[in-house]
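ARCHIVE RECORD
Type: protein–small molecule complex
Small molecule: glutathione
Source of inputs: curated submission
Record status: active
Notes field left blank by submitter.
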Amino acid sequence: MTLKLYCFGESGNAYKAALPLELSGLEWEPIFVDFFNGEARSPDYIENVNGMAEVPVLIDGDIKLSQSGLIQIYIAEKSGKFGGEDADEKREVLRWILWDSSKLSGQIGMTRFLMNFLDPEKRPHEVIKFHQARLKVSYNVLNTHLTQRDWIVGRSVTNADFSCCSYLFYQEPFGFDRKDWPAIESWMDRIAALPGWKHPYDLMEPAFPRKK
Ligand SMILES: N[C@@H](CCC(=O)N[C@@H](CS)C(=O)NCC(=O)O)C(=O)O
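STRUCTURE (tokenized, with ligand):
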């Protein structure tokens, strides 16, 4: 049965699920959520898709999952890929997924939204600067970790990598330039060189015309 992912191209959180789905070889299809016109907060979506009013959501028959990290764990269980090789690695993958959600993606998602998708006259410049400063600490954590290794956990790509890289592949500015972080840049090149890798806008329909 084809798995369905409720998503939209601009969602880095959805990309965390779409990328391992694509690379695992599981059969899946994206279902576009009209996020910027409020679909994820609509009564119908909340009642029938996700009571947390968020994207992404994965449907596999009777199973319905939200939270990108949980969806990644499900994909790993179903495909046998990207979850870590043993119990130690599985725990370590989860540790990085949780770190990413609070310290990296969670803050990038907000910063990128404020800088690109909010009406220009409503953009809170002090808040943006605050988040950008905090994010530098996170970029440094990731860059330092990757200085001596190819992948965040173990000897091959895992959901920890898919989680942490998700927002970094977007072109819309949010204060990150991969050239400032050489270990992150090489790691992103390794991810983009994985057979079958696709940019988020090539995996999921974007709401806005794609920026080059
Ligand atoms: N922790 C969640 C975060 C999901 C999330 O925040 N998704 C965004 C879209 S990228 C969203 O639906 N936001 C709803 C809102 O802020 O109202 C996950 O990892 O799936």
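CURATOR ANNOTATION: The longest strand covers residues 3-7.
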